[in-house]
UniProtKB/TrEMBL annotation, chain A:
Domain tRNA-specific 2-thiouridylase MnmA-like central: 202-267
Active site as annotated: C101 (nucleophile), C193 (cysteine persulfide intermediate)
Annotated site (Interaction with tRNA): H126, Q332
Organism, scientific name: Actinomycetospora lemnae
CDD domains cross-referenced by the UniProt entry: MnmA_TRMU-like (cd01998)
SUPFAM superfamilies (UniProt xref): Adenine nucleotide alpha hydrolases-like
Protein name: tRNA-specific 2-thiouridylase MnmA
Family: Belongs to the MnmA/TRMU family.
Entry-linked InterPro entries: MnmA-like, MnmA-like_C, MnmA-like_central, MnmA-like_central_sf, Rossmann-like_a/b/a_fold
TrEMBL record, chain B:
Domain of life: Bacteria
Cofactor section: pyridoxal 5'-phosphate
Name of the protein in its database record: cysteine desulfurase
Reaction catalyzed: (sulfur carrier)-H + L-cysteine = (sulfur carrier)-SH + L-alanine
Species, as recorded: Actinomycetospora lemnae
EC annotation from Swiss-Prot or TrEMBL: 2.8.1.7
Length: 357, 395
């Protein structure tokens, strides 16, 4: 096949490209330039959008002896990932930009362009498995990225290749070193790639007008003030800025965000427990379930799993959890996996709109 | 392989490569006093005389440098500093909107760090700076302009300016005039003395010489503050140990290229006109940017710059590259990301059309087979790039 390997400049995508080439594909490396004004050098372990990262990707392509180009996707990334990210926070929800980037950039804009240019597939360094059209968790449970790929439609997965799905990270690093790829020891990237400082609050504060309001506890008492609901995410404990401890001395958590009334609801940990979810815009990798179906639902990128029953309700999805989950933030994806023992197969996903206790 | 990116760098002429490799084995610092030093000095001075003779300058006007970027920086900054030092009112820098970044960014640096005010001269739809435009800017700021820099020939669209007329206008206002002639020397007739310019940049690797060897031609009476301080070489304007092999090879290349201009102009014009005619026959909505082909002398003979509506330039480049055809989308930035060209935008192209542009630049070893290869590939390549453009627009 003719394969376009998306190369971020990190170790995973470099090894993925190498494996695709070794598998006999005709591979072309492409680095996606996602920032209109990339920094010259990478900052710590954050981001993948600096010119240094682009150069790392190029050096890996040199070692693999594959053609390499840089595609300017900055405008699309701004429109489809960064601006919705800001808008979601402003609306009191907690977005996942990696997931959005997979859905809108890597396996939409890039895949469509690649197909038009004569490529058969886009290969990436994601840790996930594709198995006869089914998306499955990776062999490495710590690195599994099926959650951030769970939003892809079947036609998108049809054009995807994930050559790292059967490997654990340490193997990938060792393989990179053995292949002479300079990025073998490069630290994993963390946080949001377009906020290299790691200061999400500061990033949002520059883009969202302050909308001060009250912090209210379950009794209705005003226990503090804030400068905007976008500063918070459901389940957050630190940085609430409440001077007075709760009467029972127990820590307070963000329970809910109400942007219209500018209210941040806070309370004890047990009030974070939710037992039902309503999620919108579902995507199914299997036939949409006609009846209630048992599954395991995952509600954030790391952790947040519970057995549940899912039922399609109009255009939405109703999820009833078998056991309560804590810190379920509207705006995150709910990804549905097959129940154990075959629990590594993705059935579909939807965006969490609301939760119930 | 079809190499049509000679404006980026052109293969070394065999005689220039021979000169270089032969000289690399010799020892001698041209500033040393012993016989090895004298031999090195003699080789440099003979090379200097060769370069001077080829471009109508005096040997003492040849300031050797590492290439176009250094020569441009030295001229723009050095002439600015010297003129401002002589007359504190002169703090304006005038450059054209179509300049290479080596001039544009040097001028912007002066504005950002040296208190200069930058005047950018607009270009017309064909990329030319009209003398009248320069006259107006100079008249608007009498006694305030320190230096004017307008390129001889544009690296992207190949437009040749009337440098002599522009230099005359600058001199009427008492302002020194620099021209970036990196694309011009060896491609069109260039005579330093009759052009009237005060400073002219040239570089080896655009005319068949080595990368890393170039020169600023600087009139004997031009006052220029150095960028590099040290041993006082090159009239004390450009310190640094002279690159003897590079200079010798540069001289060989300049002499050969200049001697061949007339013949090569005829050959390249023929190939280029053929390429444009046949590409536009294959892709009827492709448009030629720059000066029309029926005005030879106003356009570099080896330059064909075309826009393909609905295509991304980097898609076209990648598809052609896969077929063994090497060309350029214009000027690339450090990250290798194709941004719409400032030259095309200055000429009034919209951003989409600017992004969908390719530069084919022919050179001394180009053949009709190269043109055939482009003509054969361009139809399917444009069709495919257009589908990719549509996909991007609708995904």
């Amino acid at each position: 096949m003719r394969v376009l390997a998306a190369m971020s400049g990190g170790v995973d995508s470099a090894v993925a490209a190498a494996r695709l080439r070794d598998a006999g594909h005709e591979v072309t490396g492409v680095h996606l330039a996602l920032s209109a004004k990339p920094a010259t050098m990478r900052e710590g372990a954050r981001g993948c959008c600096s010119i240094e990262d682009s150069r790392d990707a190029r050096r890996c392509a040199d070692v693999l002896d594959i053609p390499f180009y840089v595609w300017d996707m900055a405008a699309r990334f701004r429109d489809d990932v960064v601006e919705p990210f800001v808008a979601e926070y402003a609306a009191g929800r907690t977005p996942n930009p990696c997931l959005r980037c997979n859905e809108k950039i890597k396996f939409s804009a890039v895949l469509e362009r690649a197909r038009a240019l004569g490529f058969d597939a886009v290969g990436t360094g994601h840790y996930a498995r594709l198995d006869g059209g089914l998306l499955r968790r990776a062999a490495d449970p710590d690195k599994d990225q099926s959650y951030v790929l769970g939003v892809l439609r079947p036609d998108q997965l049809d054009g995807a290749l994930f050559p790292l799905g059967d490997s654990v990270k340490s193997e990938v690093r060792a393989e990179a070193a053995a292949r002479g790829l300079v990025v073998a020891e490069k630290p994993d990237s963390h946080d949001v790639c377009f906020i290299p400082s790691g200061d999400t609050r500061g990033f949002l504060a520059e883009r969202i007008d302050a909308a001060p309001g009250e912090m209210v506890d379950p009794s209705g008492a005003v226990v503090g003030h804030h400068r905007g609901v976008h500063d918070f995410t459901v389940g957050q404990r630190h940085g609430l800025g409440i001077a007075r401890p709760a009467p029972d001395g127990r820590p307070r958590y963000v329970l809910g965000l109400e942007p219209v009334s500018r209210t941040v609801r806070v309370g004890p940990a047990e009030d974070l427990d939710v037992t039902t979810l309503r999620a919108t815009d579902p995507v199914w990798l299997v036939d949409p379930p006609a009846d209630a179906v048992a599954c395991v639902v995952q509600v954030r990128a790391h952790g947040g799993l519970a057995p549940a029953t899912v039922r399609v309700d109009g255009g939405d999805v109703e999820v009833v959890l078998d056991e309560p989950l804590r810190g379920v933030a509207p705006g995150q994806a709910a990804v549905f996996y097959r129940p154990e023992p075959a629990g590594d197969v993705v059935l579909g996903s939807a965006t969490i709109a609301s939760t119930g206790r | 392989m079809t190499y049509l990116d000679h404006a980026a760098t052109t293969p070394m002429l065999p005689e220039a490569a021979a000169t270089l490799t032969e000289a690399l084995g010799r020892v001698g610092n041209a500033s040393s006093l012993h016989s090895a030093g004298r031999r090195a000095r003699r080789a440099v001075e003979e090379s200097r005389e060769t370069i001077a003779a080829a471009v109508g300058a005096l040997p003492s006007e040849v300031v050797l440098a590492t290439g176009g970027t250094e020569a441009d920086n030295l001229a723009v900054k050095g002439l600015y500093w010297a003129r401002r030092a002589a007359d504190a009112r002169r703090t304006r820098v005038v450059v054209s909107a179509a300049e290479h970044h080596a001039v544009l960014d040097a001028a912007e640096w002066l504005a950002g760090h040296e208190g200069a005010t930058l005047d950018v001269l607009p270009v017309d739809a064909q990329g030319r700076v009209l003398p009248e435009t320069l006259r107006q800017v100079l008249a608007a700021h009498p006694d305030e302009v320190a230096v004017v820099s307008v390129m001889w020939a544009n690296n992207e669209v190949g437009t040749v300016n009337d440098v002599r007329a522009l230099a005359e206008v600058a001199h009427e206002a008492g302002v020194p005039f620099h021209t970036d002639a990196v694309q011009a020397v060896g491609a069109v007739p260039v005579d330093f003395a009759t052009s009237g310019v005060d400073a002219l940049s040239l570089t080896g690797h655009k005319l068949g010489g080595p990368v890393g060897a170039g020169a600023l031609l600087l009139r004997r009476d031009a006052v220029c503050t150095p960028l590099l301080h040290g041993g006082g070489q090159e009239r004390d304007v450009r310190s640094g140990t002279l690159d003897v092999p590079g200079t010798m090879s540069l001289a060989t290349a300049v002499r050969a290229a200049v001697a061949d201009v007339e013949r090569r102009t005829a050959v390249l014009t023929g190939l280029r006109d053929d390429l444009v005619a046949r590409v536009t026959a294959e892709v009827p909505d492709a448009r030629l940017n720059g000066v029309p082909l029926d005005r030879p002398g106003e356009r570099l003979p080896g330059n064909a710059h075309l826009s393909f509506p609905g295509c991304e330039g980097d898609s076209l480049l990648m598809l052609l590259d896969a077929r063994g055809i090497e060309c350029s989308t214009g000027s690339a930035c450090t990250a290798g990301v194709a941004r719409p060209s400032h030259v095309l935008l200055a000429m009034g192209l919209d951003e989409d059309l600017a992004r969908g542009s390719l530069r084919f630049s022919l050179g001394h070893n180009s053949t009709s087979a190269d043109v055939d290869a482009v003509v054969e590939a361009i139809g399917p390549v444009v069709e495919r790039a257009r589908r990719a453009g549509d996909a991007l627009a609708h995904s």
